[in-house]
Design goal:
By secondary structure, the protein is mostly helical. It is built from eight helices and five strands. It starts with a helix and ends in a 7-residue tail after the last helix. GO terms for molecular function: UDP-glucosyltransferase activity.
């Protein structure tokens, strides 16, 4: 993400009041040609005092082993770009997702998960095609802290319809891999 977008995410995480593990990477100048990079100093891009104020409830890291994190029972939700692997992994482990599609198949996956199946909440619909319009990740519209916070709070409601549907789908995923579970 851009530095401006990272600050909006930080504000949303802090205001949400929920515990978090945030894998924060620097946006690639050209998302189609290079992977994201690391920030050299998080304190330079995050709101002043953010790391100190959130040290009891959150951790910001550069990279995380996604499958290992999703497998932890304490994980209550997952903010994802909606890539196919991330989508399958979150369903397998029964972790509800707030989807924030950026490009490629992520927009189709997000539409299916949010609109068709009700297995995720949206952060913001980006099916309008920033990248198709020739914008780089750094030029994409900034999603506000309010939009992000709303999605986080919706995602983490204990008795939400999305959470219940994801738990049911996770059970179906496991049954499908048993002997005779899928034809």
């Amino acid at each position: 993400f851009s530095e401006e977008q990272a600050r909006e995410i930080a504000v949303a995480l802090e205001r949400s009041g929920h515990r978090f593990l945030w894998s924060l990477r620097r946006a690639s100048p050209n998302i189609r040609k290079a992977p994201p990079g690391e920030f050299s100093n998080l304190e330079e891009i995050l709101p002043e005092g953010f790391i100190d104020r959130t040290e009891e409830k959150g951790k910001v890291i550069g990279w995380a082993p996604q499958v290992a994190v999703l497998a932890k029972p304490a994980i209550g939700g997952f903010v994802s770009h909606g890539g196919w692997n991330s989508t399958l992994e979150s369903l397998w482990f029964g972790v509800p997702t707030a989807i924030w599609p950026l490009y490629a198949e992520q927009k189709f996956n997000a539409f299916e998960m949010v609109e068709e199946l009700g297995l995720a909440v949206e952060i913001k619909k980006h099916w309008r095609g920033d990248l198709l319009l020739g914008r780089t990740e750094m030029e994409m519209e900034i999603v506000t802290a309010e939009e992000i916070e709303r999605a986080i709070k919706s995602l983490l409601e204990q008795d939400s319809d999305v959470r219940n549907r994801v738990e049911e789908m996770s059970k179906k995923c496991h049954v499908a891999l048993m002997d005779g579970g899928s034809w």
